[in-house]
Design goal:
The protein is of the alpha+beta class. It has one domain: Pseudouridine synthase (2-Layer Sandwich), CATH 3.30.2350.10. The protein has seven helices and twelve strands. The strands form two sheets. Strands 1, 2, 3, 4, 5, 6, 9, 10, 11 and 12 form a ten-stranded mixed beta sheet that branches. Strands 7-8 form a two-stranded antiparallel sheet. A hairpin with a 3-residue loop joins β1 and β2. The relative contact order is 0.20.
């Protein structure tokens, strides 16, 4: 086991704390706001990151157990002791672990029941790996042409949720890597959508000591302000009641502009999704060498 020096709080910064969703003796789940990195990267060494914010918040070293894209928001699990980092990582990777995402997507999703998508994805070495997700529609409309999907990935591949809904021809609105550039532009200019429409709404997993991690994250106010004006909102709340929770405020340091009200009128005809799977996302560089972990993806 590598030696780590004792934690000493830094006095030069006073980052805004993150909302705590659930906490145990050896772990903590926080609500990651948009624009915040999970951990710093070689490309953005001085950027604010959840790892440092939570470390300062709890007063000791913490260890991220999974990843969440920088523009995404929601449940984020950390181990608060090094001894539990490995067991938590293993529990997160087990078949019993469940992460539930909400995806705001282009077009009216046709299926009423669950849709299972099994489409392999290449790992960092170009080797195809099994990837499976289950998708439900919580609400849909033709004006504007959009839907809210509930997605539960059964595996943890890079950008899995984003790529699987794209493969169903319903890319996430605001996704600049795998989305539809024309539709993204329309929503940005007419609906005030300024970031990725992806939120990790809940997290549930069993721990080796017989306890559980169960956490639910309300929406942040930018998603809530847009989604709650959609024609399908009441249906979505009925199907997924945690949507009715009071939204979380954005921090002053969160780089997300306030959305404008939705402007009525049909969205533009969809073009083919952009497909920019080009290398590693610098915001998600693997720090498993530092932590001795294999972090699960979204």
């Amino acid at each position: 086991m590598s030696f780590r020096p004792p934690f000493r709080p830094r006095r030069r910064r006073n980052p805004e704390p993150l909302a705590v969703l659930a906490q145990g003796e050896h772990w903590i789940v926080v609500a990651k706001p948009p624009s915040l990195l999970v951990h710093r990267s070689e490309m953005l060494p001085g950027a604010e990151a959840a790892l440092q914010v939570v470390r300062d918040q709890v007063g000791k070293h913490v260890y991220p157990i999974h990843r969440l894209d920088r523009p995404a928001s929601g449940c984020l699990l950390f181990a608060t002791t090094q001894e539990w980092a490995g067991p938590l990582s293993a529990a997160m990777s087990s078949a019993d672990a469940q992460k539930t995402y909400l995806a705001f997507v282009r077009g009216a999703f046709k299926a009423d029941g669950p849709v299972v998508i099994d489409r392999p994805m290449k790992d960092d070495n170009g080797i195809p790996r099994e990837a499976s997700s289950t998708v439900w529609c919580l609400g849909r409309s033709d004006d504007p042409r959009c839907s809210l999907l509930k997605v539960q990935p059964q595996t943890g591949r890079y950008h899995q949720v984003r790529r699987h809904v794209r493969d169903l021809m319903h890319p996430i609105i605001g996704d600049t890597d795998h989305g539809d550039s024309k539709v993204n532009r329309w929503w940005r200019e007419n609906g005030g959508v300024t970031r990725l429409g992806l939120h990790c709404a809940s997290l549930s997993l069993a721990l080796p000591d017989g306890t559980r991690v169960d956490a639910v994250s309300p929406l942040f106010e930018d998603h809530h302000r847009v989604w709650s004006t959609m024609p399908w909102w009441a249906d979505a709340v009925a199907a997924f009641p945690s949507l009715a929770l009071p939204p979380l405020p954005l921090r002053e340091t969160d780089d997300v502009r306030s959305p404008a009200p939705y402007v009525e009128g049909a969205a533009p005809e969809a073009d083919e999704p952009d497909d920019a799977d080009a290398g590693d996302d610098p915001d998600l560089l693997d720090d498993s060498a530092l932590l001795g972990l294999s972090l699960t993806e979204e």
